[in-house]
Write a structure and sequence with these properties.
8 strands; Rossmann fold; alpha/beta; binds nicotinamide-adenine-dinucleotide; 2 domains; Dehydroquinate synthase-like, alpha domain; six-stranded parallel beta sheet
Length: 350
């Protein structure tokens, strides 16, 4: 039973529904924005062009150069483009990389961001920014980077390849898991986390077969999981993924997919609420094993080795994690962390 908590709601507007992107111009207008720069990755330029077309004279054109982990050079160039084109806001159409670029512009120039997410990463719901310089990723929290408006349109996720959708969904599940044992957890966060995890676990196996319905449910789950991430402090899982992704340049969603079952197994003895919620969601007394089975059954990676991690670098991960520790329900010691990482490296079932 909850006896004590604090909860800070995020000041943003969220709209959700198939075809919702066609109402984007209204969202931009409601924020009082007259000229917005549309951001995307090179692979989603065509979608960004369509979105710019929908915005008509409120569009300041497309900047299609977003890249994973927001390299500072890309951020500088995008900020310069926003200035040259007289943009008073940005519309980020894409996954965490594109929304991250919008946040980088907001961080420097205060331009409001409207996010149109097309993956399940959840960045649109958080005030967390990240910038990578000389291979080192810096992150921080700043209310200025929190998108003012988020438009979830499941139709835009139809093109997300199933493999990417599955790992992105596991990334979302990780937000829910850590929200359930965060030091600043609260009743509303726990409700969002369990409901988000349930929607995602239900949708993931059906993404390839039930198309629209499953993707709608997954996007709904990703919203809730992202909201959990935005409302809580990250723990061991996110720290590990941050080090593995940032220092060893491993792919973001895939790393989350491999590491999550092992962190759930590690933390389960010290995180009763998380264990109980996951047991309800997954319908088993072994949530860590069930998450590993789920990923494997959907063809997602289960070993860091398969993502290109060199086993000889694992001690550096241990050092980095212990050197600047995050909160965690179970104390993290070197030996236990080595065991956890060795299992993740080899793809052992937790
Ligand atoms: N700040 C935060 O709160 C936060 C939260 C989660 C992730 N992130 C960051 O986001 C990045 C990862 O984001 P991601 O996992 O969404 O990957 P991503 O944005 O890099 O997208 C992966 C690839 O999928 C393509 N893609 C995206 N949506 C698509 C669609 N619907 N159809 C076809 N292709 C599509 C993209 O163009 C890209 O090539 C990392 O840098 C991570 O650190 C930040």
């Amino acid at each position: 039973m909850w006896t004590e908590f604090a909860y800070q709601a995020q000041p943003m507007r969220v709209t959700f529904g198939p075809g919702r992107v066609r109402q984007l111009a209204g969202e931009v207008e409601a924020l009082g924005l007259g000229r917005v720069l549309v951001l995307s990755t090179p692979g989603q330029e065509e979608l960004a062009m369509r979105v710019a077309g929908m915005l008509g004279e409120r569009s300041a054109g497309v900047y299609p150069k977003a890249r994973m982990h927001v390299p500072v050079e890309v951020a500088h160039a995008a900020r310069a483009t926003a200035r040259e084109r007289g943009a008073d806001g940005c519309v980020a159409v894409g996954g965490g990389s594109t929304i991250g670029l919008g946040k980088a512009i907001a961080l420097a120039h205060g331009l409001p961001v409207v996010a149109v997410p097309t993956t399940y990463a959840g960045s649109e719901m958080t005030p967390v920014w990240g910038l990578t310089e000389n291979g080192v990723k810096r992150t921080g929290r700043d209310a200025a980077v929190l998108p003012r408006s988020v438009v979830y349109d499941p139709e835009l996720t139809a093109t997300l390849p199933v493999g990417l959708a599955v790992t992105s969904g596991m990334n979302a599940l990780a937000h829910a898991v850590e929200g359930l044992y965060a030091p600043d957890a609260s009743p509303i966060v726990s409700l969002m986390a369990e409901e988000g995890a349930r929607a995602m676990v239900d949708a993931l196996p059906r993404l390839g077969t039930d198309g629209h319905e499953a993707r709608t449910r997954a996007l709904y789950g990703s919203w809730l999981c992202g909201a959990v991430l935005g409302a809580t402090t990250m723990s061991l899982h996110h720290k590990l993924c941050h080090v593995l992704g940032g220092t060893f340049d491993l792919p973001h969603a895939e790393v989350h997919t491999v590491v999550l079952p092992h962190v759930v197994a590690f933390n389960a003895p010290a995180a009763e609420a998380m264990r109980d919620a996951l047991e309800r969601v997954l319908g088993t007394g072994d949530p860590a094993g069930a998450l590993w089975d789920l990923a494997g059954s959907l063809g997602a990676p289960t070993a860091l080795a398969d993502l290109g991690m060199d086993e000889r670098d694992l001690p550096k991960v241990v050092e980095a994690v212990l050197g600047a520790p995050y909160a965690n329900p179970r104390p993290v010691e070197a030996e236990a962390l080595q065991t956890l990482l060795a299992k993740a490296q080899h793809g052992d079932r937790p």
